[in-house]
Amino acid sequence: MKFTSTTRYKLLFACLIIVTLAANRLSAQSVYQPYSYSFYQKFSADLYSTQTRIHSSLKPYLVDSLLRHTYDSLMNVGINTANKSYGYRKLFSEHLIDIQHPGYTLYGDVLPDVQIGRDFSGSKNTWLTTLGYQVGGTIGSKFSFYGSGYNNRSAFPDYLTNYINTSGVVPGQTRVTNRGSSITNWSYYTFLLSYTPVKYVNFTIGQDKTFIGDGYRSMLLSDYASPYPFAKITFNLGNVRYMAMYARFEDPNAPKIPNSSDNRIKWGYFNYLDWNVSKRVSLGMFNSIMSVDADDQGHKRGFDFTYANPFIFLRPLEATNGSPDKAGIGFTGKWKVIDKTILYGQFSLTEFQAKDFFSSNGSVRNKYAYQLGIRGADLFKVKSLNYLLEYNTAKPYTYTETRGVGNYSQYDEPLAHPMGANFREWLGIMNYSVGRFDLQGQLNYAYYGLDINGLDYGKDIFKSYLNAAKQFGNYTGQGLRTDFYYAQGKVAYLLNPKYNLRLELGGTYRNEKNALFNNKTSMITVGLRSSFRNIYSDF
User: Fold this and answer.
1) What does the pLDDT look like over 369-392, one tens digit per residue?
2) Per-residue model confidence (pLDDT) at position 326
3) Going by C-beta distance under 8 Å and a sequence separation of 6 or more, which residues neighbour residue 69?
4) Rounded to two decimals, what is the model's pTM?
5) Which residues contact 454 (CB under 8 A, 6 or more apart)?
6) Contact (CB, 8 A) for 110 and 97
7) Which residues pair with 434 in a beta bridge?
8) Under 8 Å CB-to-CB from 17, ≥6 apart: which residues?
9) SS3 282
10) Given this model, what pLDDT does residue 29 score?
11) With the CA atoms of 85, 89, 95 and 100 taken in that order, what torsion angle do they form, in degrees rounded to the nearest 10?
């Protein structure tokens, strides 16, 4: 089933009708908040306080009473609407459509995103024109809904243009409609319907993304790849939160099934348990399985209900099935070392053989990744001065599979880290908000090994690891050693917090170099931007 733009509009409209018919007259609604790192880090003082036990690692959030005070203050920052005109309120403090009722709420906005810039290294002008929308709301205390759509046209800097023309995908968004052109056109949509029959259980269906972790990156499941259809159930039992999610992914570049032009389909089955051991310590367990919908000859398998039991972790079951499906397990941890400061980490294991894992022989089957980081709020006791320092690494061939179509990806982009595998990365981010001003600085350094001389050295997760350059003696950074430097600074003035409408000035420096090339990008941008979506360019 393909999700065309018409289909998406129909699904969103159907969700709204279902919600309206099924709702009852209740109050105290929870609000869905789309995930973006720059906005969510503003919750850090609450999330990482030693006085709270908030489950922080599963995103996006349904903002409830634990975060509602901070959320409301962020949605009304710098606002004084006394004696202001209707036009002033709509521009600076309210949604375009904003209905507040004891039994339901409804909001809607037009989302402009207009940006111009100059790529000095490439001696070219860059620009972005986006016209989007969002609509959302609640009915009673049990239902919430959200939908957004974006029609886009852009001239990107050279490194992004090359990425798009190679993969056919705008990073983290969707397929382009004119691959190979210097001007890129694309559209994408999200929607969801959330139902909480009792405070302990939530059901969500839609097309969106899920992020697992407390860091900027995730080695388990990130929001880098394109939105995907999913169904999710979440249990909240005090100190324990448990999620089971089932998702449908596409692989447009995989070899087609004979006599078919459709994209190859695969199914994802995910389980994640987050346990707040105390007010200072949290531990998590993660499990994933990727299952191809049909084999290369077209013999259809479809959704495997063996994996649909939400009450178990699935790795032992997958092994006993003798299945070729790609399974992974992972762990998360968080420790509040002092108030508003945490140490956090992740470990992802996609294949395990004890004799190879413990021998350090560099086996092609030693496929694992991990993350370590520290982040905090109110640095030096300066309110809203937040920071993050993070290290990420993935061994060669992590997230790959015997067949490219079975790997850990969606729409030809990784579901975990955007660099794929065979890399080490260090990054730091600092944010400061004062009044309507937001300031952010970011520094990245990474090194990784690219393929060379026609050999697969393990960075490209879309290649089968059966054709690895070597079976033993593998190490991180092997192949064509490439160094990556990235620096970005942004200053934004918030016009309307309800949909993050802001004037934004940014500068970016990027350098990717090795023995064969030295690609530099230095650019400056200015724009009128809106929405809470994450857009990645730091890879």
Assistant:
1) 999 999 999 999 999 999 999 999
2) 81
3) none
4) 0.91
5) none
6) no
7) 437
8) none
9) strand
10) 58
11) -70
